Amino acid sequence: MGHSRPKAIAPAAANAAAASFAVLEAQIGYLSETDIEVVRKAYKFADAAHLGQMRKSGEPYITHPIAVAGLCTEWKLDAQALAAALLHDAMEDCGITKVELIERFGSPVAELVDGLTKLDKLEFNTREENQAESFRKMLLAMARDVRVILIKLADRTHNMRTMSDMPRTKWGRIASETLEIYAPIAHRLGLNQIYRELQDLAFKYLLPWRYAVLTKAVSRARNRRRDLIQKVQADVEAVFAQAKMHVRIRGREKTLYSIYKKMDDKHLSFAQVTDIYGFRVIVPSVVDCYTALGWLHQIYKPVPGKFKDHIAIAKVNGYQSLHTTLVGPSGVNVEFQMRTEAMHLVAESGVAAHWLYKEHEAASAQSARLGTQWLQSLLDIQTETRDAAEFWDHVKVDLFPDAVYVFTPKSQIMALPRGATVVDFAYAIHSRVGDHAMAARINGEQVPLRTELKNGDVIEVITAPVSAPNPAWLGFVRTGRARSKIRHHLKTMAQTESVELGEKLLSQSLRAEGIEKLPALDEAHHALWEKLFRFTGNRNQTDLLMDIGLGKRIATIVAKRLAALLFEKGLKPDALLMTRERFTAHESISQGAINLDGSENASVVYSRCCRPLPGDDIVGYLGRGEGLAVHTRDCAIARKLEHKDSERFIGVEWSDEMTRSFETSISVTVLNGQGVLARVAGALASAETDIVHVDMGHETPQDTAELKFVVSVRDTTHLEQVMRHLKRTPSVIQADRLTNKSVSGS
Fold first, then answer.
1. 403-478 belongs to which homologous superfamily?
2. pTM recorded for the entire structure
């Protein structure tokens, strides 16, 4: 080791020993020689990466990864997991990249290390109970491979064991996180020993005074009751010897934390907590569990209501045992748990029991009775699959398949359905955030609003007052809340826009009649408006303007009627205004032009028959109830409509500043060959255009093929650029814009 001195004093020598591979080598005898080599290679790499780094205790940093890997060997984890345990801090602390790990150790090890690095970045910092539950679920959901969670728990256990070296200011946060997050995960995975140890260590650092008092009380009680426990053990051994049953009997003491919780929850004194002591009776078969129960009930009386059959109904984490509490000597309650060897493995090691089964092949027959479905499936797959790599392809355990857990920038966790996008997240926060969402960052990187969320993502939504929901959002949102809010907003917006458009059209038509502006909606003009509403059949002004905007009423007709009513009231038209308005209007169009910048939503439709672009000569058609449809001037459909319905046409023109890009259709004729579509798509991408749709036709393969694209461009100039890029592309024979004059009715 580069940081050990040859003339070291004893502690340094101890450190060097703890930092050597020999410590681990003694524990991995269950692996093949090839696998041991993988672990050794990972050790050497980690040792070099952490060279010169020290822990708070003054030990070389490598002692921590070795200790974590050592804990993993207790579960007999495979070589990939042990390598990942040794390398688990290399990416975060030493700047080693995932690519480097893939090159040296293969993808599975790199994925495990990457998963651990992502979990390390999560910091739980809230007091809400339901948030802790969400955080646990998120950790489990993020670790697509159970080994990630096992290594993480080993890492947390070693950190808790060495917590006294940490600054006291950190004790509270780390201990409460361990108690609220990691101990329950250990329990969820059935890792009983780790669960008990994490609880007690967290208790020790979270409430040191209570821990010390309780430790003394339990120690005194243990000394007082040593004779009693020995007597119970002797009685039990005698009864099983008499019954000729082969059993293993183990004493068990309640953890300090569980005693404290019982005292705290039920307001008991230490003296009132009676079931501190217990025994585990490990027997050969399931039937023996019930037989053992019968023998025990013959020597001691059972406490009513304290019998539980977790064999017939296993706990959710796969735990199985019979529990009974008996009244022992001197009236002290003693709990007994009867279980088979296989059940004992699962009770102590939970999900990790699967690897331990390699050590207990005889117990495999028992595995059919083990716990929950996913644990069962692990054991089933393992008995069928001897190859570790193949086994792990099967065991990508997703414990919460229907949800995705993500963070707000303030570290609050939100659960959304799988497949949810940034827009769903924005609406889940608040409808205002959703309505004005403009852009987003996930984990600090700019992403499109349609991006699907992944477990553990930190999402920041950027809003702008001018931004509004887009009808295209309805195509990718997953939550009902987002969908209904978008629809509501679009409906309201469509009405508002139609009213604004209607007002603009009516004002323009009125100017052509020589009247400067619409009469006010006041007392003086009340009768006049009422007469106009009777003429148009509308209830009020908003209704009338909306109808004009949607094309259900023709502005010129309404304007003429309104001008006549005003004339009756004695208002004279302005001849100069009338002449000017009528002279500047196009001969086939009855009103002045409306300015378009692409920000109009439902009230203006850019027709798909000709797909107009900024730069094209355009006309507007007020359809009956469909709002304003924009066509290119030479569009075949627009020409037919103009011939039939000319008074519904109004002047439209492009604004100088456009707010978005527009779709247009192009046809590309290519020489057929491998990779030709990729080359064309590459040319389009290099011209900064998005492909919205591609149609390759259904004809039998020929020497040439026609590809039809719908692409998104800024204007006609941008389209010309796109065409130049395409024409320079190898294999492209011809490229044309598809318009309705050249491909009629397309």
1. Beta-grasp domain (3.10.20.30)
2. 0.51
